[in-house]
C-alpha cells in the first residue's frame, strides 16, 4: 500500500425535485437532519476519515450552499466547482480532474447519509487494494428502484439500473460512495450521453467492466440512507438522533419529565408538565410549553415554540416554527418559520391501514410507510382547527384558513379558503 492521501469529491448540483416543497426554498443538500444540513454530516464524515481536501460540485441554488459554508469552520480545505448544466454524475466527476491530479479519490453523493465510520473503511479498503474503482454497495430487501450490482468472484460484473425482479437476482445496490484511480477520467471522456441527456457514472463503470478493469465491491454493513424522497429525511433523522449523547444546556422546570436520551440545547426551556421521551433533540432557544408530550424520534429546531398540551411524534420541526396549543404533529416534516394555529392536527394513518401515498413529481407514490404525516414548506400558516391528511404537501408561503380539512397538495404562495352557504330554517327552542 502506498503512502497516499485521498481527496474527496462531493456531488451537490442536483435540484431535488422529489423532495419538494422543501427544496423550493433551499437546495436539498442543505436540508436539515438531526440538527444539521446533510452536507455538514457528509463533511464531518470526511474529516473523521482523515481527508484533508474536498471539492464540492454545485449548480442549483449554489449561492446558498457557498454562503452557508462561508459561515462554518471545518478542518478540511473546501473548494467549489460549478457544473455548467445538469449533465449527470460522470460529467460532475470530470470537473475534479485537475483537483485530484494523478491521485486516487473518493466520490460521495451529496444526498446520502451513512455511519461515519464507513467512509474511513472504504478509503482504507481502496488504498489496500488499489483497483480501478471500489464501489460502496449495500444489501437491501427491495433493490429494484436503485442501480443493482451484479457480483461474481469478488468483482463487480454488471450494473443494472432499476431492473425488474426477472432481470436480476442480486440484492446489492450502489450507495453513491465510490473510490477511483485517476484513470477513470479517460473512461469518462468515452462515456456516451444517456437517453435522459446525461453522462452517467454507471455507464462509465460499464465501459470499464467491458475493458476488464477491476471494480471491487465494499459492502456497507451499518446504516445508510439515500435521501431522495421526503420520508427518507425521517429515516435519516432516526439514525442520527438515536446516536446522540444525552445532554442538557437549557432549563428544565420542576414538574417536567425527561425519559431516555434527550439533548437540550443552550437557552431551551422545558416547561412544567412536559413529558419528553427520547431519543429527542431540542435545539437552542426552543420553548416546550406546559403539558406537552414529545415522543421519539423528534428533532425540534432553534427558536421553535411548542404551545401548551401539544403532542409531537417522530417529526422534524425546523427553526423558528410555532406550533399552537392543542396541536398534533406526527411523522411529519415542518419547514422553517411555520405558524400552526391552535388545534392544528396532522393525520398520519389511513382508515384502511394501508401505506400512505405521496404525490412525487405528479405520480402518486407508495411511501411504504403505514404512518406518514405531512410535508410542510417554509413560512406556511394555518388557522385554528385545521386538519391535514396523511401524505399531503403544502408549498412554502401558503396559508390555510381556519377549520379546513386539507385533502390535497397545496401549491406555494396560495391562500386556501372554502365557500360556505349558511342554511336558515325556522326554529323555536
From TrEMBL:
<keyword id="KW-0548">Nucleotidyltransferase</keyword>
<dbReference type="Pfam" id="PF25087">
    <property type="entry name" value="GMPPB_C"/>
</dbReference>
<keyword id="KW-0511">Multifunctional enzyme</keyword>
<keyword id="KW-0012">Acyltransferase</keyword>
<dbReference type="GO" id="GO:0003977">
    <property type="term" value="F:UDP-N-acetylglucosamine diphosphorylase activity"/>
</dbReference>
<dbReference type="GO" id="GO:0019134">
    <property type="term" value="F:glucosamine-1-phosphate N-acetyltransferase activity"/>
</dbReference>
<comment type="similarity">
    <text>In the N-terminal section; belongs to the N-acetylglucosamine-1-phosphate uridyltransferase family.</text>
</comment>
<dbReference type="InterPro" id="IPR005835">
    <property type="entry name" value="NTP_transferase_dom"/>
</dbReference>
<dbReference type="InterPro" id="IPR011004">
    <property type="entry name" value="Trimer_LpxA-like_sf"/>
</dbReference>
<protein>
    <submittedName>
        <fullName>NTP transferase domain-containing protein</fullName>
    </submittedName>
</protein>
<comment type="similarity">
    <text>In the C-terminal section; belongs to the transferase hexapeptide repeat family.</text>
</comment>
<feature type="domain" description="Nucleotidyl transferase">
    <location>
        <begin position="7"/>
        <end position="240"/>
    </location>
</feature>
<dbReference type="InterPro" id="IPR050065">
    <property type="entry name" value="GlmU-like"/>
</dbReference>
<feature type="domain" description="Mannose-1-phosphate guanyltransferase C-terminal">
    <location>
        <begin position="276"/>
        <end position="359"/>
    </location>
</feature>
<dbReference type="Pfam" id="PF00483">
    <property type="entry name" value="NTP_transferase"/>
</dbReference>
<comment type="pathway">
    <text>Nucleotide-sugar biosynthesis; UDP-N-acetyl-alpha-D-glucosamine biosynthesis; N-acetyl-alpha-D-glucosamine 1-phosphate from alpha-D-glucosamine 6-phosphate (route II): step 2/2.</text>
</comment>
<dbReference type="InterPro" id="IPR023915">
    <property type="entry name" value="Bifunctiontional_GlmU_arc-type"/>
</dbReference>
<dbReference type="InterPro" id="IPR029044">
    <property type="entry name" value="Nucleotide-diphossugar_trans"/>
</dbReference>
<comment type="pathway">
    <text>Nucleotide-sugar biosynthesis; UDP-N-acetyl-alpha-D-glucosamine biosynthesis; UDP-N-acetyl-alpha-D-glucosamine from N-acetyl-alpha-D-glucosamine 1-phosphate: step 1/1.</text>
</comment>
<keyword id="KW-0808">Transferase</keyword>
<dbReference type="InterPro" id="IPR056729">
    <property type="entry name" value="GMPPB_C"/>
</dbReference>
